[in-house]
Amino acid sequence: MALISGCKNQRTQATNNKVFRYNQPESLTSLDPAYARNQGNIWAVTQLYNGLVELDQQLKPAPAIARSWEISPDGKRYVFHLRSDVYFHDHPVFSQGQGRKVTAADFVYSFKRILEPKTASTGRWVFKGKVLENANGQVSDTCFKAQNDSTLFIYLKEPFIPFLGILSMPYAFVLPFEGVKLYGKDFRSNPIGTGPFRFKLWDEENAIILHKNPHYWKKDASGKPLPYLDAVQISFINDRKLEFLTFQQGKIDFLSGVKGSSKDLIFNPDGTVQQDFAGKFRIQKMPYLDTEYIGFQLDLKNLPENNAAFRDKRVRQALNYAINKPALIMYYRNSLGIPGYSGMVPPPLPSFNYKVVGGYSYNPAKARQLLEKAGYGLKNSLRLRLNTVAEHKEIAEYMQKNWAEVGVQVDISISQFPAHQEAVDNGRSGFFMKSWFGDYPDAENFLALFYSPNFSPAGPNKTHFKNTTYDRLYEQARLEQNEQKRFALYQAMDKIVVEEVPVIVLFYDEVVRLTQNNIKGLQADAMNNLKLEKVDKI
Fold it and tell me: DSSP assignment of 199-225, as one string?
């Protein structure tokens, strides 16, 4: 904190600048959009770069560097018309140190770079399998085409309705070839973008400092140049208690998520704010594109012998009925979250409809009945092992008690996150807790978890669920351009997930944000994006 304070004193106090300070407890590995996989990377690069489109407050695609676009009737060709007033940040890599104008060729370069194997981008999937391919199944050289400086063509091999949403992701941000040529792999710590802030300093494990971009191309509704802030300061306090204490002391302006003992300090079990904190800071809560679930490994090649019971759908259904989800949310999350009474698709998405896609309520009697029909009871007790991480230990122990009440003995195995992730991805975990955060705001992103060609580790289908009817509906939905018909297909797929139970939907998470009272204009959305271009400090 002393180092961060020193950075602030040296670089900002001289002109009484407005510095927005936030903490990033999880690791931040790169400021290169090609590696914007986790929240830390995503939030930081969002301040430094822009893309063709961005999401508005309702998570609808809106113009950004592309002022307009057209989509061909067959859904395979996108034509983007770029603004002529967007420049890269001033940097010595450019002539006379002045940032040059962004052109369509820069997007062609940035997108092809994502696809190049040598880049090893974690976002290769956003284009691979979607854009035009040649006869050998390789990405075509002509899938991205700059007709001129202000006109960009993108060709898909088949219609993909959520494609505009994908283009709003940080993976699709634009960057200059000059910067990558100069820095190579070190571009991760020497970023050059078009965004509201430009890079100043990264002291690994201590702080990142971003300064206002004085030539940013956006203005507010009254014509005032953005951003309002003069600098952004990112700290890396990984202890949640210390993080909250630092926020209480006013040394951090914003916190996202309330975890560990902090939630008990701030919230009552019913979700209301403790009297001691009322009025001391602002709290925002809203539904999140995050579904928390328990998965079953259903592939017979991967299924451990002691989890053979999972082959029986009645066992999976019984384990679902046995969980008291409202009590779990109230007593272990202080009412932060929505019980998982529907399918995998979370409430913020427009296709969500719990009346059409009904889930599992708490019904221990029904759970015992299903277990008995499956051949489990006093004479043949069922014993399982649930794999999770330390953060979810209390919730796992609560469910352990729920399952014990219906005669199922569950052992809990705690692993470090990387080991847990690796075991789940490679099918070595038969019964596991996981989360799925929406990459883009379309139900397809959640339902892709059950499409059989998407088996992990290459794809997101970690349960190896396979259902021919589901696959047919998924393929039909990807091509359906009528919104209401597509929503009906999504709901039909989610109903299959509910019936077949490859996962137990525990709850849909909520975005929870704490901000100091002098912060103005910081808006939350269902993807928990952090956009600071319109934030002010008064």
Answer: EEEEETTTEEEEEE-TT-S-B-TTS-B
What is the predicted pLDDT for the residue at 267?
84
* CB crowding 419-440: b at 16 or more within 10 Å, else e: ebbebbeebebbbbbbebbbbb
The Cα 333–Cα 276 span in angstroms is 19
What's the CA gap between 197 and 47, in Å, rounded?
Answer: 6
- According to DSSP, residue 313 is labeled H
Residue 293: closest CA among 10, 494, 139: 494
Q: Which residue has the tokens 């800071």?
A: 281
* Predicted model pTM: 0.90
SS3 82: strand
pLDDT: which is higher, 260 or 63: 63
Identity (one letter) of the amino acid at 442? Answer: D
Beta bridge partners of 384: 410
CA angle 452, 456, 457 (to 5 degrees): 155
Q: What is the pLDDT of residue 300?
A: 82
| Long-range CB contact pairs, 185-192, < 8 A, 24+ | 187/32, 188/29, 188/30, 188/31, 188/32, 188/35, 189/30, 189/31, 191/31, 191/32, 191/45, 191/48, 191/49, 192/88, 192/89, 192/91, 192/93, 192/99
Instruction: Give pLDDT tens digits for 136-190.
Output: 888 999 999 999 999 999 999 999 999 999 999 999 999 999 999 999 999 999 9
End-to-end CA distance of the chain: 23
Q: Give me 302's structure tokens.
A: 């991967």
**Residues in the chain, total:** 538
d(CA 128, CA 162): 14
DSSP per position, 441-483: SSTHHHHGGG-GGGBTTTSSBTT----HHHHHHHHHHHH--SH
Q: Which amino acid is at 484?
A: Q
